[in-house]
Amino acid sequence: MARSGIQYSDVQQAIDTLLTRGDTPSVQRIREVLGTGSYTTISEHFRQWRIERDNNRDVPPPKGVPEAVASLAGELWKEALEAAQQALHHYREEADRQVEVARREASDADQRAANAEQRESALAEHLRHTETRVEALSRDLAASQSDEAHWRAQSDEARSEAAKSQEAYERIQQQLAEREASHAEQLNRQQAEWETRLAQEEQRHEAAEDRLMGLLDSARQERAQEEAAYQQRLKQADKRNETLAGEVKTLERTLHEQQLEAQAQRQAQTRLEETLETLQKRLEEVTQQREAAEASLARQAQQHETRESAWQEQLWSRMDAMQQQLTNLPASLSHQKEDGSGNQPD
Question: Apex CA 344: angle with CA 340 and CA 346, to 5°?
Answer without folding.
Answer: 155
